[in-house]
Amino acid sequence: MVGFSRARPSVRGAAMWLVLLELRAPLITLILAYAISCFGLVLIPGQTDTGEPYHLSFLQAFYILSYTATTIGFGEVPYPFTDTQRLWMMVVIYSTVIAWLYAIGSVLTVFTDPEFRKLRRHQKTVSRVRSNRSPFWIVCGYGGAGSQLVRFLDTSGMRCVVLDAEKTRVDSGRLSTLTYELDVILGDAMDPDTLVDAGVQHPLCQGVAVLTDSDQVNLTVATNVRILAPRVPVFARSGSDANTRNLRSFETDIVVDVERTAARAIGQLIQRPKAYALYHELVDPDLNRIEAVPIPEVGHWIVCASGRFAELVVDVLLREGVSFVLVSPKAPDPALGLDWIEGVGTEAATLRHARIADAAGIIAATTHDGDNLSILLTARSENSHLVTVARRNRPASEPVFRHGEFSVVLREGRLLAQEMFARIQSPLLHQFLAQLDLMPEALVEGLIDKLHRRLPSPDVELDHHVVDVTESGAPAVVAQLSGETAPRVGDLLVDSARTHPALPAICLLLVRFNGDLVPFPGENLQLQYGDALLMWGAQGVKSRMDWLLGREDVFAAVLADRHAAHRT
Amino acid sequence: MNTQRVWFAFFIVLALTLNFSFFVGEIDNPLHHHPYEFFFALVVSLIATVLKIGDRSHVGAVLLATSLVADVQLIIGAVIWGYAAQEGLAIEPHVMASVVSLAGGAMVANIISVILLLAETIQIKR
């Protein structure tokens, strides 16, 4: 820490010092011009009205000089000047006016210098970050994933400080339309000073999300944060297994490997479409309904991919037991015994080789957006019933993919932002997502149906929230815990209106104070102090539930009513 | 030898010596204190101040502060003098005394400045 307290002043006020340094020469010129002029005026004798010689006093000389140098020109006081005085006045006028122009010009040069403006802007941002009074996240890398994550955080009421080395991205960050003003720092995230400027040591810093494209940068930033601010959680992106292991080795809190996530999503989509739909409704703040893609029962899949992503998808599909044909320019490991067609998949002939007429779906997941679009369009013209899965690489291609009417579009940046945001939002959701992977599809389907039966209409927007059974989270429930009628999970899910109709919500996960997990708790499960519940239901349920759980009298009445109804 | 350092030291020392030249003499006798000496002491002091700007070390900051003190003292003295001597250079002994004592204060600041300069110079290892 000592090292930093010494390094700090180097930034603070640096811009002002730069101006002062630049101003040294003009200031001295100005002082000398004034001094020589002033002294000359005092030395040169003048004449009074009556012709007697006199000398200007320093006060008078400085007065004349002041209005002459500033080009105001009040005239010749106290008496009209002699010709000698006028001769000197000409020297005074030209030298002082030029000295002023020089000084003002120097100031303007400094202020319009792009480096100087950059420095000032940087200082402003740094001081704003330093005086921040609300919790914030630091996001390194303002690309597709970064901007998406910032938007998610912003809508959930979290401030962000963005770090990026590229000026165009930083500018787009400054122009973004977010609720909170985005603090953007232009700089190399690998430089520890930049991290400190971004507020990594600020007591309200909630965490650092490292989302740049380079594994090297992500790794360096993660290690730097670990050392500079050990208590701050680090969420890092990783592009290879070696890097993931490396990041995990020094306790990086969350490591998201986008390609792995995308491959897993493909597997989930094909084998358990309902779980896929639930997963994405929960992790994506923009997706507020269950959109299950109908997956045909029969038919094989065509995977067009190359490189590491192809390996990952093949791995997942083999594990899930999906029959598929791989279309890739490079031969896969022969030991796997895959059905492999050489090619990219953009040509109809290649796709026909892959028996496209009998296929259930096609996954276009090359690293080139143009190829992916071409594959899918060709495939659709060969077989119009195909499920089409597109991989979108560049955010700029988004409009084409959005209008392409594909069954599923995998956006890497978005996937990454979703994965991180879900984990930032609540640890409970994180735990539930881990559980969801283990749940059979029928259970997930039953759960979705259960919620849908409670919804007033199928297109109600969905949302989730967490209820903590503590004094601050649900005081009314805590007050009843020791009473005769112990509150149960179902008692939280009712409306306080007369007949206590069920709220359009269900409980996905209950976590006991000791860490025990109860996925999909029954409505008769008794609550205990310290329980945390993940609720999922229509938007707006949170406020109604919070109101009920905050009013001891109302909740007691509801509990008594329900208890009485239960007994009869 | 660094030319910049020469000018730097030159102006700091000159500010002190000019200040002293003005200061010596009977405190309330206008004949002992010439306005030209005062004028040059002020100008040199201002130049010394500008030269001290830009050194961001701790000693640099204190040097700048002493110079600013000297400037303030001298400018107040100049204002008092200018105000009191409205008609020519005839000046009351008590006004002269206060101008000279203000200049004396400025001299103390200049002495500190020179001491710091010496201390810094001595610290430099050859």
Unreliable spans of chain B are: none
The coarse overall form of chain B would be: elongated
Number of helices of chain B: 4
Helix proportion of chain A:
40-55%
Could you say which structural class the secondary elements and strand pairing of chain A correspond to? alpha/beta
Secondary-structure class of chain B: mainly alpha
Instruction: State the order of secondary-structure elements of chain B, H for helix, E for strand.
Output: HHHH
Largest interface: A-B, 19 and 19 residues
Q: Major β-sheet of chain B, in short? A: none
**Terminal CA distance of chain B:** 13 Å
**Termini separation of chain A:** 68 Å
Descriptive overview:
The complex is a heterodimer of chains A (568) and B (126). Chain A is an alpha/beta fold. Chain A contains 23 helices and 18 strands. A six-stranded parallel β-sheet of chain A has the order 5-4-3-6-7-8, sandwiched between helices. In chain A, strands 11-10-9-12-13-14 form a six-stranded parallel β-sheet, with helices on both faces. Chain A has a four-stranded antiparallel β-sheet with strand order 15-18-16-17, sandwiched between helices. In chain A, helix 13 links the parallel strand 9 and strand 10. In chain A, helix 11 crosses helix 17. The N terminus of chain A is likely disordered. Chain B has 126 residues and is mainly alpha-helical. Chain B is 77% helix and 0% strand. In chain B, helix 1 packs antiparallel against helix 4 and helix 3 runs antiparallel to helix 4. The longest helix of chain B is centred in the last third of the chain and has 31 residues. The model of chain B has no long low-confidence stretch (mean pLDDT 90). Classes of the chains: A alpha/beta (568), B mainly alpha (126). The interface between A and B is medium-sized, with 19 and 19 residues.
